[in-house]
Recover the amino acids of this structure.
């Protein structure tokens, strides 16, 4: 049985009844209830981010920067289901609007990190030798120089636009993923099924795409999902320093930070945005785990 | 299979111990590798200093800007620039810095007049180092333990609890965690015990002062390491050789420690390298919340007051630590997975 699995991984059987890798992955992904639930939550969040200005225009969601000055730090009420913040702004509306920036940071930054860190790690681990040494010393350099100054310079050169903040956060955070992918690849590439893939003449690219990436996926997904809240908080820290998202734009990270300033007055101001961040992270974790399981040939039944 | 040895192999449960010694030829190769990597630290440091130098001078603002109060007069600024060599062309400043750094002279701090960068860093590092090292000692066993336990009991209550903790640790920033601890163990505990007992909320001491900063610092990395260990352990659990190990009746301890844990450690060890480096070089948030005079805080104030020598000094320290940590990780790969070849 083990032998069959090895051969199956190494050889592209082109029998007519074989289903393609990705349609098979999709089929198995759909069967994973948690993964589907995660995907639905993310879809709802994305819809919210896209449609919330429209909803606000229709009067269904309150204005996120309108100050209800008679209800500063108001607890949850009919009018303000999640209470109000230190300026009397509706927390629910700010959460719904905050998804626009926080979700973009969550997804886009991790996407850039995956692209840079994944490629550098894969190439470094797969080719080894001099390539590995140079790429990893480059990574050491990138690890070491201070991100804060890098972000300050980037934002001062390109202006405090959302895009430059995304790029700055991604560029200062890919090194960890690169080392992780490389470590995985270093170990996986010495395994028997890679050897058999080579023996049947698979190209380097195919080995990477078909065998190394799926087998290295677990820790990569964990790292990317953990990166989501970290990117949101980094952005909030930057805006606190005056180089990030500028107030009064709602953003979950900034909401946590503002709420923290007055945790004693109203705990909800920290709790609600933290829950939003946790839900986002959990959804992506479930999606990622589902994807990993769907890609794992050993999980096939 | 029974207890009888088959084909000269040792009997069940009596597998040879985990090899921590490499064959001599590989030992020599490893020593050469380590030597080369240590030499490589010099070009790495050179580029780190170069990039930091350029970025620092590109960043808007100068060390003599004053927020609030009156700005320094042009004549004073000119004198200061002459005193600290900032009037020279930037490449001369850079070469001079490299030359001095090679002689372990890292210059004078701008914000703490008359103090050398070396004395400031050596003065603050013990605090940062102690807290970071202790946090690391919490993270490794707790994170790996939780991760393995969650993976072995996948989709049970234990697994979900570990997941809940990990999500909390990641989605709640550490300044909030620090403040929660202060509220609970500093304030509430004080009131509940009628002022008899509470954890100290600020300052440094090698006693119960350490508890809250260490817990605050350790929460996020512990959560991350736990999830990472779980993910990579789950990958290993599905391997044929683990099934074989169970099937031939090895004890749980042996299967978990030797067949599962050892093989799932690669990503965990990889992540622990930079984690260690970051921990022992300081967290501005934890040092600010608990008022600890460490170098994490002084580094951030250095960045904001454009204290160039202080920025460079701290960056060099971090660069050395991270390069060494990653070197140790790469060496550990060989012991964890003897198939890994370093070149």
């Amino acid at each position: 049985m083990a032998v069959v699995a090895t051969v199956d991984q190494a050889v592209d059987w082109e029998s007519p009844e074989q289903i393609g890798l990705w349609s098979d992955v999709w089929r198995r992904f759909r069967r994973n209830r948690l993964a589907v639930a995660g995907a639905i939550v993310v879809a709802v969040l994305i819809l919210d981010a896209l449609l919330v200005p429209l909803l606000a225009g229709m009067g269904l969601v309150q204005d996120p920067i309108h100050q209800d000055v008679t209800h500063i730090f108001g607890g949850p009420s009919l009018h303000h289901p999640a209470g109000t913040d230190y300026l009397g702004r509706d927390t629910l509306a700010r959460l719904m609007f905050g998804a626009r920036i926080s979700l973009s940071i969550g997804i886009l930054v991790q996407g850039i990190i995956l692209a840079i860190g994944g490629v550098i790690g894969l190439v470094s681990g797969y080719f080894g030798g001099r390539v590995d040494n140079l790429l990893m010393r480059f990574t050491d350099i990138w690890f070491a120089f201070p991100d804060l100054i890098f972000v300050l310079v980037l934002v001062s050169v390109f202006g405090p636009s959302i895009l430059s903040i995304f790029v700055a956060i991604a560029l200062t955070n890919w090194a960890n993923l690169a080392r992780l992918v490389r470590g995985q690849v270093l170990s996986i590439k010495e395994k028997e099924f890679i050897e058999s893939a080579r023996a049947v003449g698979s190209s380097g690219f195919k080995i990477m795409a078909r065998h190394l990436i799926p087998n290295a996926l677990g820790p990569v997904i964990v790292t990317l999902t953990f990166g989501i809240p970290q990117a949101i908080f980094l952005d909030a820290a930057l805006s606190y320093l005056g180089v990030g998202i500028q107030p009064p734009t709602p953003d979950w990270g900034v909401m946590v930070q503002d709420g923290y300033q007055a945790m004693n007055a109203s705990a909800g101001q920290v709790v609600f945005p933290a829950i939003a961040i946790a839900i986002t992270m959990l959804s992506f974790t479930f999606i990622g785990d589902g994807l990993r399981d769907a890609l794992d040939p050993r999980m096939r039944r | 299979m029974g207890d009888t040895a088959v084909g000269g192999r040792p009997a069940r449960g009596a597998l040879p111990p985990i090899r921590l010694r490499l064959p001599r030829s590989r030992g020599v190769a490893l020593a050469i590798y380590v030597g080369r990597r240590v030499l490589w630290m010099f070009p790495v440091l050179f580029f780190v200093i170069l990039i930091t130098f350029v970025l620092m001078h590109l960043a808007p603002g100068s060390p003599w800007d004053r927020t609030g109060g009156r700005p320094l007069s042009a004549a004073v600024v000119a004198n200061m620039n002459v005193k600290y060599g900032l009037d020279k062309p930037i490449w001369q400043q850079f070469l001079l810095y490299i030359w001095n750094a090679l002689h372990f002279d890292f210059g004078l701090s701008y914000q703490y007049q008359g103090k050398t960068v070396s004395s400031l860093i050596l003065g603050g590092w013990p605090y940062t180092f102690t807290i970071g090292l202790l946090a690391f000692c919490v993270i490794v066993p707790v994170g790996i333990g939780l991760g393995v336990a969650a993976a072995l009991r996948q989709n049970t209550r234990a697994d979900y609890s570990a997941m809940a903790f990990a999500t909390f640790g990641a989605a709640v920033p550490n300044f909030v965690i620090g403040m929660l601890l202060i509220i609970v163990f500093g304030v509430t505990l004080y009131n509940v015990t009628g002022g008899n007992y509470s954890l100290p909320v600020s300052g440094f001491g090698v006693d119960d002062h350490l508890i809250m900063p260490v817990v605050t610092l350790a929460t996020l990395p512990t959560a991350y390491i736990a999830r990472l260990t779980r993910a990579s352990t789950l990958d290993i659990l599905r391997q044929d050789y683990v099934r074989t190990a169970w099937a031939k009746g090895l004890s749980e301890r042996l299967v978990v420690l030797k067949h599962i844990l050892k093989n799932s450690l690669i990503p965990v060890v990889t992540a622990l390298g930079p984690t260690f480096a970051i921990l022992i070089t300081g967290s501005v948030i934890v040092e600010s919340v608990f008022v600890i005079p460490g170098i994490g805080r002084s580094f951030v104030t250095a960045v904001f007051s454009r204290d160039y020598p202080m920025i460079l000094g701290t960056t060099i320290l971090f660069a050395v630590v991270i390069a060494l940590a990653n070197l140790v990780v790469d060496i550990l790969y060989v012991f964890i997975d003897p198939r890994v070849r370093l070149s």
